[in-house]
Each structure stands twice: as C-alpha cells, then as structure tokens.
Amino acid sequence: MKRKIRVGDVVEISWLDACFYSTVGDVDVEAFNRGGEICVLTGVVARISEKSILIVGELDEERQPMRDFNLIPRCLIIKSRKL
User: Fold this and answer.
1) pLDDT in tens, 19-74
2) Distant-in-sequence, close-in-space partners of 37: CB < 8 Å, separation ≥ 6
3) Sign of the CA dihedral 81, 62, 47, 50?
4) 3-state secondary structure of 23
5) Which pLDDT value is given to residue 1?
6) Of the four, 22, 31, 56, 70, which is 20 to 30 A from 48 by CA?
7) Is the pLDDT of residue 2 over 70?
8) What is the pLDDT of residue 71?
9) In the chain, what are the helix, strand and coil shares in percent, each to the nearest 5?
10) What are the backbone dihedrals phi and psi of residue 30, each rounded to the nearest 5 degrees, phi first?
11) Fold of 10-82
C-alpha cells in the first residue's frame, strides 16, 4: 500500500525540469523527446497543495546540499517516495 506524503516527511522526488542550452547543437535529443531533464532531489516536505509541493533543505542526487527550497508543480513529478 502506497503511503501518502505529508508535511514533515523526508522524500525523494524525481521530476521533469526545463533545460537550458547555450547553443542549439547542445540540445539533448532524449531530454527533448521527454520534454525536459529528469532531476532527483531529497528534502523535507514543507507544504503541499493540489498543484505543487514545496521542498526545503534540498539535497542533490549525490545527497549534497543544493538549495534552501524548491517549489515543484505536481504535474511534473514522475515518482516520489518517503525515506
């Protein structure tokens, strides 16, 4: 049974992010076909709404400090799990 994510939970989230390229030749074809770059973050859920989730104390894929907070539209979340 899948557990519902709640405020205060430590989570890992995979989500689709926009990409920036300096030149058109750098465009990653796989990212283009997916609609963006897949990002993975770990952090604490601060707020949840119908449309977004606010993560604080974000760590990157290597579990290194990355950002203080990140607001992610729920429609871009590919996978989430409680840690």
Assistant:
1) 888 888 888 888 889 888 998 888 999 999 999 999 998 877 777 777 788 999 99
2) 16, 17, 18, 19, 28, 31
3) negative
4) coil
5) 44
6) 31
7) no
8) 94
9) 15, 50, 35
10) -65, -45
11) SH3 type barrels. (2.30.30)
